[in-house]
Each structure stands twice: as structure tokens, then as C-alpha cells.
Specification:
- The chain is an alpha/beta fold and about 375 residues long.
- It folds into two domains: about 10-175 and about 360-374, 3-Layer(aba) Sandwich (Rossmann fold); about 180-355, Rossmann fold, CATH 3.40.50.
- Helices cover about 45% and strands about 15% of the residues.
- It contains 18 helices and 13 strands.
- A seven-stranded parallel beta sheet has the order 3-2-1-4-5-6-7, with helices on both faces.
- Helix 14 links the parallel strand 11 (about 275-280) and strand 12 (about 300-305).
Length: about 375
């Protein structure tokens, strides 16, 4: 254990530091926790856009490869964590939660788990779904678990109902770094990017993965009304589905109006210039991209999917919610906002006011710091 009066030693763990929302939140959280904790991070896959950022901030990052024999992997993970003599371990995302809980069996190290997504939807139809659910329940019910955090109140209730952990389940949403978002919004665009905003634009941001249901968005946009037919759809993100999505846009005759812009370290400068932001997901935990867009753009349409969007948007007050998977409703909502500047201004003002109250330090850092110090 840490010496008296020394900073507590915190070891965090995550699958990778790729470009997803959870990875970005953890990187930011660890930087913010450094004054209070001696922080280090273990990753199970090398690379990721936030790795260098963390190392520049003084957070050591160690790779523990998950390939090969699973028992040997768990032994390596156990050694990597215990060699740092942690006072507390923080695990992000269900795969890492399971791996860390198994690796630390019998070690007695306090563990805080973070369930960052709607695991019911994520496991539905997945390979070995029953085994994954069983192992996540096993992880959540370990005696050394100090707390299980969730991204939203809805996910917290799921964890309580499904797993009945001995430790408290605490919803800790993703707060916003308003000052950083404002700086990002002011960053100038390249001439090529700036040219994308000559007319009205619809923007979406997130991994090109099935969960995000980009085919629905592309169809809703391609089949839209007269305003949508004159607009451009910008999709920010990377993923295995990119060739398939590009083919769909071409088949729908919309490839000249749909642009795939890849991963951008600063998506906010682009999102802030768009006419409308859209989230078309089938499920979420609590979508970072939507929470940030409510501040940076303010004119947002979201699928009212489980879970998260309805905790961020009051339909018709500071955004629009549509039934998940409903192409016609999504298309109508996009057309409504493109065609109605008065409504856009009203929603934008209300959304920005609500988002400004949701700061990262007050909403995210302080609750985590309290749990990790408990």
C-alpha cells in the first residue's frame, strides 16, 4: 500500500486507447486525476490515438498482450497490475472488467469497474453471449469490488437488476470540458474541409460499427425531402463497415452528397459548423458524441435508443428524439430542422444552456475521485 501522506497509487486498465468515446473519457479522466493519484495505465492492445497524449501528460502506459493462452494472459495482467502495488484499480469496458476481475482473484486489491455501454443490447445475438453475461456478473459480484460505475441511470438499473452486486452501483455521466470544446470549435478548418460547408450539412460522428446504424442514417438522408436533397451528409469515424456504407450511398444515388471523413482528432470544429447533428444508433450507454454536439452544435436529432439519449434530450425542447430504427421518422426530423431556422435557433439555445451546466470536473472527475479514495 502507498506510504502515509503519499498520493494513492491508481492503476487503470482498458482494452485499447483507440478513438472511441470511452477511451477519450478515460484518457481525460486520468489526466485530471494525476494531481490526486499516482496514475498508470495498462492496455491490452497497442496503439490508439490517446496513448501518446497520456504519456506526454506523465501517465505511464504498459501493454499486456491478450493474445495466446488465456491463463498465461491473466497471469501477465495480474503481475503488471500488482507490480505497481496499487491502492485501487479502475477498469473500463466489459472485456477489461472481466479480465481484471479474473486476474486479481484473491489479491484483495480494491477494484472499481466501469460498465460503459448497454450490455444487454451489445450481447444480444453476439457469440458466447450467455458466457459474457455470466462473466460480467461474476466480475461485478467480487468481494474486492468497491463500486460499479455506469454511464447512465438506465444502465445502472440494469446492472442492479441483472447482477445484484454487493458493492454500490453509481451512475457517473460524461461531463463536458466546455473550455476545451470552445477552443476546438474555434480551430480553423483546412480549405478542403471548409468547402464542405458551402451549403447545408448533416453530420454524424462515431465508429463505423453496427451499433451506430449508419445504413439507417444514409437511407433516411438519401430518401429525404427537398432540403435534404440539396444538403451534404458528413460522417466522421473509421471502422470495418466503411466499404459497405460507401457502396450503399452509391446504390442510393447519394454518393456525391455523402462524405466519409475518417477519424478526426478535433471533430468539434466540423460538428459546430454543420446545420444538423444526427445520432442513429440502435443502442448506446450514454453517447459522448451527442452530449458534445448539444454544446458545439445544438441542433440535434437522435434515435431514442436504449440507453442515454432520453437522459440528454428533452424532445422538442433542446433536441428531437425519434424511434430507433425508424427511417421515415429520422428522415422527417432531419428535413424539419433543415427547413426551419427558427426551430433550429430555439433548440440550439436551449441545448447549449443545458450542456453548459454539465461540466467534466463536477459531473465526472469529482465522483470518480471520491469512489477511488473511499
Amino acid at each position: 500500500m502507498a506510504e502515509r501522506n503519499a498520493r494513492p497509487r491508481l492503476v487503470a486498465a482498458i482494452l485499447s486507447l483507440g478513438g472511441g468515446g470511452a477511451e477519450r473519457v478515460l484518457a481525460r479522466l486520468l489526466r485530471e486525476l494525476r494531481p490526486a493519484f499516482d496514475v498508470s495505465l495498462v492496455v491490452l492492445e497497442r496503439g490508439g490515438v490517446y496513448e501518446e497524449e497520456l504519456e506526454r501528460a506523465g501517465v505511464p502506459v504498459e501493454l499486456v498482450p491478450k493474445e495466446g493462452n488465456k491463463l498465461r494472459f491473466l497471469r501477465r495482467l495480474r503481475k503488471a497490475i500488482l507490480d505497481r502495488k496499487p491502492d485501487v484499480v479502475l477498469s473500463f469496458l466489459f472485456y477489461t472488467d472481466i479480465a481484471v476481475a479474473l486476474a486479481l482473484l484473491g489479491a484483495g486489491v480494491p477494484l472499481v469497474l466501469a460498465v460503459r455501454n448497454n450490455y444487454r443490447a451489445e450481447f444480444a445475438g453476439a457469440r458466447h453471449a450467455a458466457a459474457k453475461r455470466f462473466l460480467l456478473k461474476f466480475a461485478c459480484r467480487r468481494r474486492n469490488v468497491r463500486a460499479v460505475t455506469s454511464i447512465s441511470e438506465t444502465v445502472a438499473e440494469m446492472v442492479r437488476e441483472d447482477f445484484r452486486p454487493k458493492a454500490p452501483v453509481v451512475a457517473i455521466p460524461n461531463g463536458l470540458d466546455v473550455e476545451a470544446l470552445e477552443r476546438d470549435m474555434r480551430q480553423p478548418l483546412s480549405p478542403e474541409d471548409d468547402a464542405l460547408f458551402d451549403g447545408q450539412t448533416v453530420v454524424a460522428c462515431g465508429r463505423l460499427a453496427p451499433q451506430k446504424n449508419y445504413p439507417l442514417l444514409i437511407r433516411a438522408f438519401a430518401h429525404g425531402g427537398p432540403f435534404a436533397r440539396k444538403a451534404r451528409l458528413l460522417i466522421l469515424g473509421t471502422g470495418a463497415l466503411e466499404p459497405e456504407l460507401k457502396k450503399l450511398a452509391e446504390e442510393l444515388g447519394a454518393s456525391d452528397r455523402v462524405s466519409f471523413l475518417g477519424f478526426r482528432p478535433n471533430p468539434h470544429a466540423l460538428v459546430s459548423k454543420a446545420t444538423v447533428f444526427v445520432l442513429s444508433s440502435d443502442f448506446e450507454g450514454s453517447p459522448n458524441a451527442l452530449a458534445e454536439a448539444l454544446f458545439t452544435n445544438g441542433c440535434c436529432v437522435s434515435a431514442d435508443c436504449p440507453t442515454g439519449p432520453s437522459e440528454l434530450i428533452d424532445d422538442g425542447v433542446d433536441g428531437l428524439l425519434v424511434p430507433p430504427g425508424d427511417e421515415e421518422a429520422l428522415s422527417r426530423a432531419i428535413e424539419t430542422l433543415l427547413s426551419d431556422p427558427v426551430l433550429r435557433a430555439k433548440l440550439s439555445e436551449a441545448a447549449r444552456r443545458r450542456a453548459t451546466a454539465n461540466t467534466f470536473r463536477e459531473t465526472t472527475v469529482i465522483p470518480y475521485e471520491r469512489l477511488l479514495r473511499a
